[in-house]
Amino acid sequence: MSGPAVIAVSGVKNSGKTTFLEHVTPILRAMGLRVGIIKHDGHDFEPDVPGTDSRRLREAGAQAVAVYSANRWMLVCEEPDVALSDLLDQMRGMDVVLLEGQKHSDWPKIELVRAAVSNESVCRPDTLLALATDTGVRIPGVPALPLDGYEDAARLIFSCVKRL
């Protein structure tokens, strides 16, 4: 295998992508998979807490600051036009990388359609592994899962990882 499987969890804003990932991730971990997640933020975000050493060093002008311990590491890098492929390179040790968002990408995806915020699919059907919804929306040839069908979604993701 040249790298981890990459699968997006997509949908419109407030469709429940983070909640979905919060429920699916522990199931995938229990199945023995190493899971990485990359979340896209359409705005800018604060990568570390004001007052921490890493923040103070970034404020001093460092373009990249890494923090590590015996059990984890984190890298904050100031770089314009970050490419998703650069982040995927950092996740080589994972079995699967789940992308939160990326609805217009070519990545295979599970799209969430939540009645409270949407009544239609916004992803290209040829990229969909499944549609997770609490609506009557169906796409020919695309399996439909309940919006809270976390076990079913995890089994689908697991089968994609094992095919690689």
From TrEMBL:
Superkingdom: Bacteria
Matching InterPro entries: MGD_biosynthesis_adapter (IPR052539), MobB_dom (IPR004435), P-loop_NTPase (IPR027417)
GO terms under biological process: Mo-molybdopterin cofactor biosynthetic process
Protein name: Molybdopterin-guanine dinucleotide biosynthesis protein B
Organism: Anaerotruncus colihominis DSM 17241
Residue ranges of coiled coil: none
GO molecular function, one term: GTP binding
Family matches, as CDD domains: MobB
Domain Molybdopterin-guanine dinucleotide biosynthesis protein B (MobB): 6-134
